[in-house]
Structures are given as structure tokens and as C-alpha cells.
Amino acid sequence: MTHPRNPGMPLTTDWFDRVQINRPAAQRRAATLTTRRSVKKEHQAAWLVKAITCTDLTTLAGDDTDYRVQRLCAKARRPLADHIVTGLGLPDMPTTGAVCVYPTMVGHAKRALSNSGIPVASVATGFPAGLMPLDMRLAEIRYAVDQGADEIDIVITREHVFKANWTALYDEIAAMREASGEAHMKAILATGELDTLSNVYAASMVAMQAGSDFIKTSTGKEPVNATLPVSLTMVRALRDYGERTGMKIGFKPAGGIKTAKDAIAWQILMKEELGRDWLEPDLFRFGASSMLGDIERQLEHYVTGRYAASYRHALA
Amino acid sequence: MPTVTEALTLMDYGPAPESTTIALDWLKGRSFGHFINGKFTTPDETFATNSPASGAELAQVAQGSDKDVDAAVKAAHKAAPAWAKLTGNQRARHLYALARLMQKRERLFAVLETLDNGKPIRESRDIDVPLAVRHFYHHAGWAELLADEYPDHRPLGVCGQIIPWNFPLLMLSWKIAPALAAGNTVVLKPAEQTPLTALLFAELCIEAGLPKGVVNIVTGDGRTGAALVASDVDKIAFTGSTDIGRAIRQATAGTTKALTLELGGKSPFIVFAEADLDAAVEGVVDAIWFNQGEVCCAGSRILVQESIAEIFTNRLKNRMKTLRVGDPLDKSTGHWRGCR
User: How far is CA B264 from CA B131, B194, B222, B298, in A?
Assistant: First the structure.
């Protein structure tokens, strides 16, 4: 990360407790953002390559195995077929932003990614519900860091948000940040369960005040995962935090982002609301798995003028 | 074009031009007469309509004379009794036919509108044209319901309609669709700067089999408009500047002509401290920069509660940095760099 890490700050509730988010307005802005901008040809190909470099290629399933993680890591190292890279005229094979796995898979991922420079992200803290006792959640973070995780994706206790118990939420996240140590910490807000956008804004602000390096929408396991209106609310919160503290906080939408078109929609959102810096992997990540396959398909179409059948692409 | 590698560093939107072929093919070598009594006249005196963005001449259109206006009003009067006598359902079928044909030509309408008016293709494509189509569908529904909902209402007769250049096709729809639904016939004068989509609409009237004389379109400048105001119409509907509106009011005073005027405004935009300020900023953007600010009810004054004046102003200034000014035919353009 080229930007200094967010050291956090004392809990300051008046940065958010009177902020109201107008949901219809957020939905309207989100709906028209992608119709107001268009990215074509070389630029579209470039944006999709950039999206690959911002992808936390993820597997978080009960049937994950060492071999599945190895296969995923191989894909992270070589997300595109050679002829696509050549056709695009890229000097090197791009790599994904990270690989994201459960703590027990971190060791497999580290070995599979050795010498690649690709970081390993681990979910932790009783993912996805986050309802384990706090000491166990902190121990899980330490375990994942000990296994070599470079980034830790924690989940917050939703109850603290519903009860507006900001002190409890702040203390919990600050403790997790401390347990993460050198590993960068992404705070998952599980926005699909927070009900109101005002809650999303408040939770985002608390997470940043407690020292999160990234704020992330969802675990991918909630009934509703990343949406553009929620993302708009979160990026505005991180813009506001940045204006007050000078810190650049990252954003990670996750869950339900499946297509190349989705990727560009989020990139337009980042560029319009935050600017060019937030198109780079140090400040922007997608939590996604199947999206990469569609991006590869679209890029192959750009290079060859034809769509390949899905079975011609390597499994991710 | 940059290479993909260069574009990766830039990460800008790059050009995304809408093709003009469809519209230029339609325009090729055309010189337009008026649309009177179901057919185009042979143009006598003509003037050029230009693309304001490129300055290029798009076509020659006819300058409507007193004689032309008279012929159009006569045709409309002749068609009026039979049109008024149709059942609501029969008139609805005509309006549905027009709506469907417009929908089939949405792309052509949008490109033509952007060429002729200079508004961004995103707006003509996503707003003007779809809304215009919906107005015809909507008023087709009203034609069906009219006898039940307004049993005592009777058609006025011939409506003379004069529209401005800021929403050429949409204004046409606002004027023509309800008038036809209610059993009136019309003579419409589009703005001299933007007559082309009205002329395309006239072609669709032929294609839709609309009875002759129900819709008449006479092109020309203010002289043509004045002739229409002075003519033997039963109503004048005008959208445009306050000054011309006053002149029309004076010209129709003491006559039996019904009158609708939709004139300029200076609408306030009020922001309270407890508002979602980002939502309010987007509201301002839509209120004052939609259609390049050329909207009669554009929010051209902002009243902000003092306690948030500074932060609101800063946010609005920052938002203004992301407005994109450029070629109106580019899909990422929010504003064309000029103004009509």
C-alpha cells in the first residue's frame, strides 16, 4: 500500500449520529451513474484488466480444500489465457489483487502464491455471522496472521449497530485492528442486514475511526450483498472521513458482483465519487469469484471478436 | 486511440461516440416542405437548420408564410369534425399507432434531436425520446377514458401550437398527444432552430395512417408563429419566452381564442440543515444542469440554511468538477460546451 495506514482516532459520534441518508436519492444517483458514463474499446479492455488487479479472488465455502485453494491461486497468478494477454499487448500477465480464503486455508494459499507478490486475505472473527465470543474472534485473527495472512477481513457485530451501541462497536473493531498487527484490516459491515443507509453510514464511520484500512460491504452470505446505493453511502462516508483526517481509506464491495458490466459500474462509481486514486488495488477491491470468468470472456471477445464457450475457460 | 497499456495508466473514459449514420442517411439531400393535409408541400423559401455543436448544415426547411399557415389551419378545420366524431377507442388506436412507430424509431429520433439541438445524446436517448413515446401511450389511454371521465367535455376545434427548442420532440408530444386524444386537430410550429424531429414525426403520421389534416406542421421563425397566432384557430398553446408570451396574450385579447402559456421561471432550490446533503447536491445538479440548464423550471436560485452553507457550497463545487463537458454525441458527455 502506497498510502499511509489509517491509525484510527477516538470515537467521535457527532461525525455521524445526525447524518441522514435519503434512500430514494441514493438509489436514483446509483441508477443514473452508469447511464451517464460509457467506456468503450481499448478503454473498456483497460478498465477490465484493472478490475482483475483489484479482485480479491475468493473461495469461502464449506467444501473448500487445499486443492481448490491451489487451483484458485493458480488462477490468481494467471487470470487470463496467454493469447488474451498477448492480444491486449500487455507487457506482463496481470495478477489479482489478492486471494481471499478461510483462516485454515491461509497456509495452502501462502504456499501456492509464494514468490508471486499476491497477498493472501483471510476472513476471520467468526465469519460470516461474527457471533463468537470476542476473545475467540481475536484469537482467530491472530491464527490467520500467524499462518501468513497479509490482509484480514473482519465482520462486525450487527447488534451493536441496531442498538446504536457505538462504543461497543468501536472497541470491538479497535481490538481487531490491534490483533491484525501488520496485516491490513477490512471491516465487513454486512450492509444487507443493517436495514437503513443511515446505519450503513454510521457503521462505516465507526469502523474507520477504529482504524480500518478498508470498509467492505458484505460477507457474500447475507440475503442482499453489495449494491450500488449501499456502496455510494459507504464511499461518501470514507470521503467524509478522508476530508477530516487526511487518510485514504479503501473500499471493497463484495457478494453478488458477477459480471464485467458490474465491475465497470462500480469503477464508474469510484471514479465519479472519489476520483482516480480509488481505481487502484491499494484503495479498491472487488470481493468476487465468478466475475473474473466473465471478464476473461469479455476480454477474449475484445481480442478475437468472438465469444468463447464457457468450457474453454479455466475454472476459477 | 491509446493502447490498452496506456489506457490502464490513464483510466479515463475515452471516447464513446454515438453513430450519426442513421440520422445522416435520413437527412441526405433532403429539403423539407411543410406537412399540411397529410403531405409535404414543395418548399418555396427555405432556411438552414444547423448542428449547433459542429455548425454543419443538417437540412433546408421551409419558412412558413401567411399562406402556408392559412392552408394548414384550413386543413385542420376540414379534418376536425370527422376526428371529433371518432369514438375514444378509435382515436386511441391512432395514438397507439403513433406511439409504436415512434418507439420503433427511438434511436433515429434521439440522434436527430442531439444533432439539431445540441443536447447530450444520453439525455435525448434516456429522457426526451422515451418520455415522448410514453406521452403518446398515456394519452391514448386518456382517449379511451375521455367519454367516461369527462362526459361533458367537447373538443375545442383547431389548436395552434408553438413550441421552443429546448425539448423539441417532447414538447411536440406534450402539445399534440393530449390535443388529439381530446378530439382536436392541430397546427404545430416547431422552433426554427430545431424543426427536424417534428418533420420526422410528420412522416410517421403518414405511415400510421392518421387522417389527413389532423396533424399539420408548419416550420419557420417568429413570423410564422405570429401568423399562426393571428390565424383562424380556436386555441393557441405556446411554450417559450415571457416576452413572446405577453405579445401573444395581447394579440389574442378580445378574441374567442383559448390560450395556454408556459413561460420562463426562476425556481428556488431550498436546502435545510437536516437534509442528506449529498442527495441535495445531486438535486441541484439535476435541477440546474439537466438539459444544460435550458428548462423553464430550472432551479436557478439556491437558498441554504446558514449552518450548512459552507459545507454545502464546498460539496457542490467538488461535484461540479465531475461534470463532463464535451461532444454531445459522446455517451459520457453531460453538457455540450456551448448553448443555443
Answer: 21, 19, 17, 9
